[in-house]
Write a structure and sequence with these properties.
By secondary structure, the protein is mainly alpha-helical. Helix content is about 65%, strand content about 0%.
């Protein structure tokens, strides 16, 4: 498929931090994707959770299944917009590599532990994983990914962190946070696909867990619209099939909205290059109506799922596990932490890297080893 003029062309990539010869059979972004898939951090995602902790069930989403769903949605939309599918996929597969065990509860706890040491943010950690922490190559630390993939991975960044990164890498991936410009359209798309996938599968997992009901979901316009479509076409359908059909339509409604709304923005702005697209306001986006609908769904999930007493009990325990491990390792650094990393990055950051790399299972075992108690009853 021919790429649009505003799509990232691997032949015009800004390159890698450490130059490498081109691969004979793969583009730069295909190479990035392959390196991500074969990384240790990517494999760990299979036992890192979203909302429900690993021990609560085998069928709930993990960071790995989430990343695959994001990649599928992003590639589908990217194809319709003539964007670079390989770059979109690479960003989507890598965007959660820096997540801690136990989802956002683990991240919040680790950020609290790292107050006074630069804090902790999972987007920044994902970049740190691909730039420094992976140890697969003799010639360099990290995966040495292309600028465009790294740019997409770093989707959020505080000004203080951006200034630090800019000092380390002038005109690098953090520059846009200081100049107020946008990342590539592929990065914008991966970010939005993340939101679409997250909302849909949290509805699915919420109903599967019994914490949400279809009756509750009828109050959400986007879900109610999808349910009405299904019932209009399949009278009498119920149970899981009704939910799955509604989720499928809910995803389609959002995907087609993104495609139509983005095409209209591209028509109006008419960016003639990748850099012109970066200099424009965000171009890959929902229509205003769909943005409102998505926000309503987010508010519903926050109030009824993420703040459900059962979920809050588990996340409180997860925060305790992470903070206990950080405190214990600060008192006695475990042998598993590389001494070179300790000297290079300092003890708190090396401990944060170690804990962030843990799966839910490993963190639970480590907690029991440290305290003599099970992490989760």
């Amino acid at each position: 498929m021919q790429l649009a003029v505003y799509a990232c062309d691997p032949l015009r990539s800004r390159g890698r931090r450490i130059p490498e010869p081109a691969a004979p059979t793969r583009t730069e972004y295909q190479r990035d994707r392959d390196r991500i898939v074969h990384s240790t951090a990517f494999r760990r995602l299979v036992y890192k959770t979203q909302v429900f902790v690993n021990h609560e069930g085998d069928l709930y989403r993990t960071r790995l299944t989430h990343s695959l769903e994001v990649a599928q949605l992003a590639r589908s939309i990217g194809r319709s917009l003539a964007l670079n599918e390989d770059l979109v996929e690479a960003i989507a597969l890598a965007h959660d590599l820096g997540h801690t065990p136990f989802g956002h509860a683990g991240q919040d706890a680790l950020h609290q532990c790292m107050q006074g040491h630069g804090g902790f943010e999972h987007n920044l950690q994902s970049l740190r994983v691909v730039d420094r922490l992976e140890e697969r190559y003799a010639a360099f630390d990290g995966l040495n990914l292309s600028f465009e993939t790294r740019e997409g991975i770093l989707k959020h960044c505080s000004r203080a962190n951006a200034e630090r990164l800019e000092r380390e890498e002038p005109r690098g991936v953090a520059e846009r946070f200081l100049r107020g410009t946008q990342p590539s359209l592929e990065a914008q798309l991966a970010n939005l696909a993340d939101e679409i996938a997250y909302n849909a599968h949290d509805v699915d997992d919420g109903v599967r867990s019994g914490l949400l009901t279809l009756e509750q979901l009828e109050s959400v316009d986007l879900v109610a619209r999808a349910l009405a479509q299904v019932r209009g076409e399949h009278a009498g359908l119920g149970g899981r099939r009704l939910l799955f059909e509604a989720l499928r339509r809910m995803l389609s409604i959002q995907v087609y909205d993104v495609i139509d709304a983005t095409r209209e923005r591209l028509r109006v702005v008419a960016p003639a290059s990748v850099d012109a697209a970066r200099a424009a306001p965000p171009l890959v986006a929902f229509s205003p109506e769909m943005r409102d609908a998505s926000r309503q769904l987010k508010r519903f999930l926050f109030a009824n799922l993420y703040r459900h007493p059962q979920v809050e009990r588990t996340t409180a325990r997860a925060r305790l596990v992470v903070s206990t491990l950080f405190e214990a390792y600060s008192a006695e650094v475990p042998a598993e932490i590389d001494r070179v990393m300790l000297e290079r990055d300092g003890t708190p950051r090396a401990i944060a890297d170690f804990i962030a790399g843990m799966t839910d299972r490993y963190a639970g075992v480590a907690y029991e080893r440290v305290t003599g108690h099970r992490a989760f009853a």
